[in-house]
Amino acid sequence: MKTLNIASIPGDGVGKEIMPEAIRVLEKVAQVHGGLQFKFEEFPYSCDYYLKHGAMMPEDGMDRLSQFDSVFLGAVGDASKVPDHISLWGLLLKIRQEFQQEINIRPAKLLKGINSKLSNPKDFDIIVVRENSEGEYSSIGGRIFHDDNEIAIQNNVFSKRATKQAMNIAFDLASKRKGLVTSATKSNGIFHAMPFWDEIFDEIASKHPNIKSESKHIDALAAYFITHPHELDVVVGSNLFGDILSDVGAAIMGSIGIAPSANLNLNGKYPSMFEPVHGSAPDIVGKGIANPIGQIWTAKMLLEFNGEANIAEHLLKVIEAVTADGFMTPDLGGKYKMTEVTDEIIKRLDK
Amino acid sequence: MKTLNIASIPGDGVGKEIMPEAIRVLEKVAQVHGGLQFKFEEFPYSCDYYLKHGAMMPEDGMDRLSQFDSVFLGAVGDASKVPDHISLWGLLLKIRQEFQQEINIRPAKLLKGINSKLSNPKDFDIIVVRENSEGEYSSIGGRIFHDDNEIAIQNNVFSKRATKQAMNIAFDLASKRKGLVTSATKSNGIFHAMPFWDEIFDEIASKHPNIKSESKHIDALAAYFITHPHELDVVVGSNLFGDILSDVGAAIMGSIGIAPSANLNLNGKYPSMFEPVHGSAPDIVGKGIANPIGQIWTAKMLLEFNGEANIAEHLLKVIEAVTADGFMTPDLGGKYKMTEVTDEIIKRLDK
Ligand SMILES: CC(C)[C@H](C(=O)O)[C@@H](O)C(=O)O
Ligand SMILES: CC(C)[C@H](C(=O)O)[C@@H](O)C(=O)O
């Protein structure tokens, strides 16, 4: 019997609602497939935790999380309780950076039955590979001067090592897919970082003569997601650009409530972390209408990157069968509650 | 007779094709309305100019441009000839920064007859106010170390002065419109610059109790443009975020070929500059199918900010009558050529 030890962090807002749903699904998956079991331990790290303890997690929090095979996260952040830069740098970004989860994989794919927000979406199936540890997400910088003369300086730091790694993964993925890598750049505006990014991309691209490659500026590329999503395959972007593009991708999928993501540790020293793309959505908390698919699709990625690719594919097929038959929450235009969508997924896992 | 002295810079690619179209329209506008005339002088500053002269403009280029009431720009950049960071920092960004065009105004509005790329666009009418002189577009930074250890550092510089100015303009605009200002932030990820941005926004917002205000993270906001565009009014963003959102806005308008923009100098020391949001589109050069509406709508903004608001409104009505009747280039799903669309606009200006 293979046991996966999972640290679950429901976090804030709808994170607390959808996490039990995804766990219900994973338990069912294990039961149906046999040979696999989950041990979950829940950690209450969140903005509420901060309000009680003055920190997003205890001193030994990272140590404790490091004992697990994977971290399964709901959503973090509730600016009405804790400023976002405190809550995120104290939990989500802390885990990504300290656990060296340098790659974030974010699929954007139109599931059957879902009405895309686009008038003519055709079939798109994009994977965003996001550099996940540096770039625009750096805590280096500060402020100087007073009153109206005040300025803030923010340092973005791009390393060739992490940039190459993200791009290599993008080319690897593309070689198993449609064979196209699109690099998100902004070398026309961002003077130092982005020409550096482009040079590295051209170098990696030249080593993959059988994969098509192209660079598009982030503004034009975000627009391209809307106008020509079916022409994209694998998109590689910096921390910020990957962040933006994956939300744009989620929107054209029909709702940011469905998009999944995997924060991958590649050196084997720490766990990887799996979390949906959406946020904690304080406005719909308590209504029972949060879309569980983002967290459940994320559970699929957790299975995939824990060596269970077949079981993972089966789960995605079941999710898609459920959307195809119209079991959807209101964000997708459906009339079902969160738990009803999950129930339907669980029911079909049995078959 | 009021004379407007305009420096026209067609630039690269389709810029050279659409500039004469917009000038034809402006000449017609002057003829129809009387009391107004244009003097145009064309400047060949472009990537081709760079290939001949080793610079995007001559030493006295800025001096010469500074003599005009406004600069009217087509599109700049052709990476097959000159790296983008050279061509843009040598022309477009140089003009914006040296002429202290600290504000960029970019409307995104659905014109009649145009099929938005969205399945349910409803009526949206958004103005993006973009800080246009600093932030992520800074030439401070550089590289260190060698081979795979190389890193690039990019400094973003945000001043309270320019940030406040952009926000104040956003609130002013909102007071004449639906009364909502949305701030594009990313204070959950961008540690120094964006919490600074948010603080300033909250300060300005508190001085405008009659205007509703909200902050949204750039990733969620880009998605929101797709899922709920009709709920936005005025959006204020940093240089980069304004850049990205205005292209997303252009895409949901139906094509990035139609969106206009105004780079405003507010201290009266230098000319303002008017340019469409789209780029030089090398792939469609020479086919006669470039959409002239971006440049013509930009001409409308040139009129507006040169004290001719009524004439400007009339021009926009004519543009919309033309799209409403289906005269559109292929990017909008139409079958007309660039010149045919312009001809139709000119014909209707006569009436
Ligand atoms: C060409 C480029 C430097 C420019 C920008 O990023 O500002 C363009 O995208 C724009 O939106 O005007
Ligand atoms: C919450 C926030 C810091 C985070 C990010 O920007 O990475 C989120 O938007 C995401 O996409 O995972």
Automatic annotation (TrEMBL), chains A, B:
Gene3D superfamilies: Isopropylmalate Dehydrogenase
Enzyme class: oxidoreductase
SMART domains recorded: Iso_dh (SM01329)
Cofactor: Mn(2+); Mg(2+)
Protein keywords: Lyase, Manganese, Metal-binding, NAD, Oxidoreductase
Occurrences of domain Isopropylmalate dehydrogenase-like (ranges): 5-345
GO molecular function annotation: D-malate dehydrogenase (decarboxylating) (NAD+) activity; lyase activity; magnesium ion binding; NAD binding
Record carries keyword Disulfide bond: no
Organism superkingdom: Bacteria
Keyword Lyase belongs to the record: yes
Catalytic activity: (R)-malate + NAD(+) = pyruvate + CO2 + NADH
EC nos: 1.1.1.83
Similarity remark: Belongs to the isocitrate and isopropylmalate dehydrogenases family.
Designated name of the protein: D-malate dehydrogenase (decarboxylating)
